[in-house]
Write a structure and sequence with these properties.
Helix 8 packs across helix 12 (259-288). This protein is globular. It has a single domain (6-288), classed as P1 Nuclease, CATH 1.10.575. Strand 1 and strand 2 (173-176) form a beta hairpin. The longest helix has 30 residues, at 259-288. Strands 2-1-3 form a three-stranded mixed beta sheet. The protein is mainly alpha-helical. It has helices at 6-18, 27-38, 43-52, 67-70, 95-98, 110-121, 135-148, 177-192, 198-210, 214-221, 232-247, 259-288, and strands spanning 167-170, 173-176, 256-257. It binds 2-acetamido-2-deoxy-beta-D-glucopyranose (6 copies) and zinc ion. One 2-acetamido-2-deoxy-beta-D-glucopyranose binds at residues 204-205, 208, 212, 267, 270. The site of one 2-acetamido-2-deoxy-beta-D-glucopyranose (NAG) has 8 residues, from helix 6.
């Protein structure tokens, strides 16, 4: 992959994993999602994104989609915004029941954060100088959180912290279930299927979006309540269902996950990367559209 080598990526991920708490998709996952999204931005959205990107992005949204993970220990208040937990063994999402942080503060979770930063970005057209928000940060947070909410274990059970306390082996390596879904499945796929090149994995997913998933691609873009700019509650419902059906299944504490688990779960991961990329692009296209202006997030 361009820009940074695998060794560097591994070091950064290794460091992040040692820090307790729940992280998003790994760096590769977020990079892939934002790369996919960039390919589907319309002219208005491209122009706005270019204007809002920080200097260190060098014009590439994908390069900075992990930024919220890098600053989350500095911006402590943002830590709870990367995920949402449901009551143990309930495989559904209920926003008023579930959206709170571990201290019980309501509205501190990933679905609320997605509404928050969408609403902030909708003030972009009011002219930047008048905005009371930092829209650069809003763009990076929104792009990151739309990714996170599609990682099934970012909408996992409270008791095991979305799989963080479920210790398993990934092949021979000791890790936890959350990390398997953030990083290991993607890393193993890149290594064994895509000749160690993340770009090849991204291209394979992009081909599917315009081919095998052509019809899905269009339904992914719209919210069931199609007046909405974004619909995080729907994405959260999908994630907890996938967590129950695929992530938690056959992954009890102490188990070893290898070929069977890898082969059956990789397609789920690839589809979630595709969905979040398509939805991020559709959301940014709606936000920055110069024609239609939605009143509310
Ligand atoms: C969601 O949770 C709230 C608060 O616990 C409850 O009042 C409401 O009935 C639940 N909604 C659904 C659809 O289950
Ligand atoms: C909304 O965004 C502001 C500015 O970044 C932040 O202070 C606040 O905690 C955010 N709230 C949520 C729920 O995302
Ligand atoms: C907005 O946030 C970015 C990233 O944290 C920072 O570099 C920039 O200085 C901020 N802009 C303003 C006007 O505060
Ligand atoms: C492409 O789509 C097919 C059919 O849904 C699926 O089996 C395959 O895993 C997908 N590949 C990628 C790279 O997403
Ligand atoms: C969906 O597929 C069509 C047809 O290839 C393509 O034009 C479009 O850009 C794809 N993605 C999105 C997000 O619309
Ligand atoms: C979505 O849009 C279609 C066509 O524009 C309309 O018929 C339908 O009622 C809308 N559904 C919702 C839930 O708003
Ligand atoms: Zn995250």
């Amino acid at each position: 992959m361009g820009g940074y080598g695998l060794w560097w990526t591994g070091t950064v991920l290794g460091f992040l994993v040692l820090v307790p708490g729940i992280l998003g998709w790994g760096k590769e996952g977020h990079y892939a999602i934002c790369k996919i999204a960039e390919g589907f931005l319309n002219e208005d959205a491209l122009a706005a994104v270019k204007e809002l990107l920080p200097e260190f992005a060098e014009g590439d949204l994908a390069a900075v989609c992990s930024w919220p993970d890098e600053i989350r220990f500095h911006y402590r208040w943002s830590s709870a915004l990367h995920y949402v937990d449901t009551p143990d063994f309930l495989c559904n999402y209920n926003d008023s029941r579930d959206c709170h942080d571990s201290a019980g503060h309501k509205g501190r979770c990933v679905t609320a954060a997605i509404y928050n930063y969408t609403m902030q970005l909708l003030t972009y057209q009011d002219s930047i100088s008048e905005s009371k928000y930092n829209l650069t940060e809003a763009l990076l947070f929104l792009s990151h959180f739309i990714g996170d909410i599609h990682q099934p274990l970012h909408v996992g059970f409270t008791g095991d912290e979305g799989g963080n306390t479920i210790i398993v082996r990934w092949y021979r390596r000791k890790t936890n279930l959350h990390h398997v879904w953030d990083n290991m499945i993607i890393e193993s796929a890149v290594k064994t299927i895509y000749s160690k090149d993340l770009e090849l994995m991204i291209e394979a997913i992009q081909r599917n979006i315009t081919d095998a998933w052509y019809n899905d691609n269009r339904s992914w873009q719209i919210c069931a309540n199609n007046q909405s700019t974004v619909c995080p509650n729907e994405y959260a419902s999908e994630s907890i269902h996938l967590a129950c059906k695929f992530a938690y299944r056959n992954a009890t504490p102490g188990s070893t996950l290898d070929d069977d688990y890898f082969v059956s779960r990789l397609p789920v991961v690839e589809k979630r990367l595709a969905q979040s990329g398509v939805r991020l692009a559709a959301t940014l296209n709606r936000i920055f559209s110069s024609e239609t202006k939605f009143a509310e997030a």
